Amino acid sequence: MFKQLISVLFISAIIFSTSFAATATLTQQAERGDRFAAYQLATEYDNQTTDTENSQKLAVKWYEKSAEAGFETAQMKLAFKYALGHGTEKNMQKAYTWFAVAAAGGNETAIAYREKAKLELNEKQLTEADSLAKVWIDKFATKK
């Protein structure tokens, strides 16, 4: 029984150290601007079941970095985070902005959610959100 316990602890330590090293590598890549690494890191934080408040904040941070680098899937995830207030304050104006950016690529889901978010904005908020979305869309268009 004692040997089994030691084996389980040893294997757990190996898994933890491997996971920690992988997260450290992803963090380095994300900090250098790798949008896919930032997205993967965000997803890891998003899926954590412990320390969820801090994990959700870190997920938002890395989804934002990936979204700002032009990754459409991260733009959608970030928009949902703002719409639901997970890991950040609920902000339908920011949600609308990121749904609009993702929708610019023809994403049907983004288009539908952009229209739903639009219903919660007043005219001033909508104008500001459209303006910011255009800045991001133009930025990504010039990178192609």
Describe what you observe in this structure.
The radius of gyration is 19 Å and the shape is globular. It has helices at about 1-30, 35-45, 50-70, 70-85, 90-105, 110-120, 125-144. The relative contact order is 0.09. It is mainly alpha-helical. The model is unreliable at about 5-20 (pLDDT under 50).
End-to-end CA span: 60 Å
Mean pLDDT: 86
Unreliable residue stretches: 5-18
Q: How many β strands by DSSP?
A: 0
Question: Topology, pairings included?
Answer:
Blueprint: H1 2-31, H2 35-46, H3 52-68, H4 72-84, H5 92-103, H6 108-118, H7 123-143
Outline:
The protein is mostly helical and 144 residues long. The protein has 7 helices and no strands. Helix 1 crosses helix 2, helix 3 packs across helix 4 and helix 4 runs antiparallel to helix 5.
Could you name the key traits of this structure?
144 residues; mainly alpha; 81% helix
